[in-house]
Amino acid sequence: MPSAGQDLDPERIETKQDLAEQLTALRELAGGTSLDALARMAFPDSRGRANVTTVRNWFAGTHAPRDSDALCRMVRRLAKSAGLPDPDATVRGFANAFDRIADARLRQRQARVPGAKAAPSPKPRWRWWPVLVAAVLMLSGGVGFAVARYSYPPPSVLAFPSCAEAFTTGHSSGYLVLTAETGPPGNPHPNRRIELRIQKDDADAWHAYAYLAQSPNQQDRAYLLWSYQQSGTPRESWRECGGELSNKVQQTPGLLSRDRNGWPRWFRACVQVPPEDQIPGRGREICTSATRADD
Amino acid sequence: MSTARKLAVLLASAVLGFAGGQAAFLATTGPSSPKPDSPLLAYGHCGEALPPNDTTSFTVAISAPGPVGHPVPNRAIELRTDGAIAWAHLETSRDVLDRLWFDWSYERAPDSEPRWRQCGAQPITAGASTPGVRVADDAGRARWFRACAQVPPHHRGPRISGTFCTDWVSPAGGT
After folding, report:
1. How many Cβ atoms are within 10 Å of A146's Cβ, its own excluded?
2. Taking CB atoms and an 8 Å cutoff, what residues of chain A touch B32?
3. How far is B126 from chain A (nearest CA, A)?
4. Which helix (H) or strand (E) holds A94?
5. A230: how many CB neighbours lie within 10 A of its CB?
6. Which of A5-9, A103-107, A117-121 has the lowest mean pLDDT?
7. How far apart are CA B128 and CA B122, in angstroms?
8. Half-sphere exposure of A169 (CA within 13 A, CB side)
9. How large is the ipTM?
């Protein structure tokens, strides 16, 4: 039971349960009027058990009043017998509360009726929204890829001298054999060995070069093939960097494994043997497979 | 959600997609700066190049018959290991022009040639076993291997490539 008096505040009423609470508080203030008397206050023109049941439901919070006038009549009588300073204000408060409850009931009913004016479920509108965002993402992703591809054209080997940067190679700083090949092709006792070597410069960049490690004939010709395309591309996309004699060994100058713009290069080290050393029916060229430093 | 916020989200996704597309290009085909050193580049193409151990106890980690497509695959390429090192061995070679080698990597089944190193290709006249490489490097990183062999053209049968290889295997239990 709410303590009477302090809790009487019709402005707080939002639901029929709130209304029942406030009515009970007012009834307490008025000295605990009986239900029969309350029914007579609300419905002075008619008598019967139905009116008592209706009023009981108001006080129990199970039903809200349907008739604002009946509620106001009862509240006015109660407020007067409770001796409240301003009965009219109290009546107005309960009348407003009645309107709020009636409005809420109307909104609820409209939401339940299909095709009503109230806002429909927002789902259908949102179903297309993620699709639209995804489409924009994909489209702009493609555009971004294309723009990047356009603004970073793959370099051509023809834009460089045949040996590109042509660094001097030396073995004082150490080297690494990336891959090697022996030949001539078809010879069961190969007497040539061509190596693809890499070494690091002072700036920690790899230089690649071809090194003819074994050669019985001074007419052998060693060279380095390099390309911006991966292995398996036609010979035309490969540039040839010829070797020269250095410390009695044929080797090529060094090329950056990854050029100054960051494009990786692929390399093959090759040696061509003179016709007299060729195995009949086989080629004169001994080449390593195409590879590059894994940097 | 208000129209202005929707437009903002669309604009943000457009900018994000544009940047993502450019990043995808640079990550796949475009130029890029060098990555930190690969452990592959700490060794030569035959790693430590240790002598193979075909006399005492070794196990065949994996083997493959060949030549592929030949009516009678009469050779077998093996990857042998004694627990410390691994090497390739060509069993029952039929021709002096047979060659053998093995590839090694720090990855399981690398898909690009720079991601593995090739030790060889050794003519069979130089021995039926290649030099050996440690199954795990000095830093304890496990290595992956596959052994390969190539037969000369007159032994190749209907297939042009006379090369046959085993699957990748890691005797040190790499993952």
Report:
1. 13
2. 262, 264
3. 8
4. helix A87-112
5. 15
6. A117-121
7. 9
8. 30
9. 0.84
Contact A145 B113 (CB under 8 A): no
Q: Does pLDDT of A18 surpass 80? A: yes
| pLDDT 10s digits, A2-12 | 444 456 888 88
Q: Specify the range with the lowest mean pLDDT, choosing from A35-44, A132-141, A210-219.
A: A35-44
Is the pLDDT at B58 greater than 60? The verdict is: yes
Domain coordinates in residue numbering, chain A: 10-112, 121-153, 157-287
How far is it, in rounded angstroms, from Cα A186 to Cα A204?
39
pLDDT at B41 over 60: yes
Minimal CA separation from B57 to chain A, in Å: 30
Chain A contacts of B30, Cβ < 8 Å? 148-149, 152, 262
A166 Cβ contact list (under 8 Å, min separation 6): A241, A253, A254, A255
Place of tokens 């690398």: B110
- CA A254 to centroid of chain Cα atoms: 44
pLDDT at A1: 41
pLDDT tens track for A260-290: 888 889 999 999 999 999 999 899 999 998 9
- Both structure tokens of A189: 């006792």
- Token pair for A256: 């950056």
Task: Tell me the β-bridge partners of B77.
Answer: B64, B90
B34/A258 CB distance under 8 A:
yes
pLDDT at A216 over 60: yes
Angle at A181 between CA A175 and CA A185, to 5 degrees: 160
Contacts of B47 by beta carbon, 8 Å cutoff, 6+ apart: B104, B117, B119, B133, B134, B137, B143
Question: Cis ω on the peptide bond leading into residue B67 (within 30° of 0)?
Answer: yes
Contact residues of B toward A, CB < 8 A: 1, 6, 9-10, 13-22, 24-26, 29-35, 37-38, 40-41, 43-45, 96-97, 113-115, 117-118, 121-123, 125, 152
Asked whether the whole model's pTM tops 0.80, one would answer no
